[in-house]
Amino acid sequence: MKISEEKLYKYLEIILLESEITEPNSSMNILHEKYLNPITESEREEYFNITSGIVLLGVKLGYFKYLSKETDWYELTEKGIKAKEKGGHFKYLDFIETKELEKVKPTIIAENYIGGNNHGIQSSRSAFDNPEIHKQSKITETKPPKRSFLEITSWVIGAVAAIIAIYEFIIKKL
User: What mean pLDDT value characterizes the chain?
Assistant: First the structure.
């Protein structure tokens, strides 16, 4: 009988939280006392598959160390003790993920202040590499600003006045 992975992880949580840190532990003892009470032959078969599967999973994940491979006796490793302290396998994974993000955060902050001649002004390279931002900036860059008729007329009159001034003051004196 094959035990589902979901069921193994459920009981792994229980075993991690119920295990003693300073003493050898038995998955059979922990589960039989409070959680599983196999009565029929099929329940006993499932029970033995669960207890051996949990220890095997715990060893693979680094939480347990076998005391004897023939039995279900194990000790918690340092990682297993840490997982127990954090509240189980899934909370330990959350803790590790948070810890990894904390390690990465200073790198991201440092990268924001490095590069180019920005004189210490914060810039984010990821913003420059983001294609969505490039797309938006190209749209705004390609649209010329709208000029009113009055503004265009004033520019033309100013240019004509400048040309007349140059002619009157420079060319006539030559």
Answer: 77
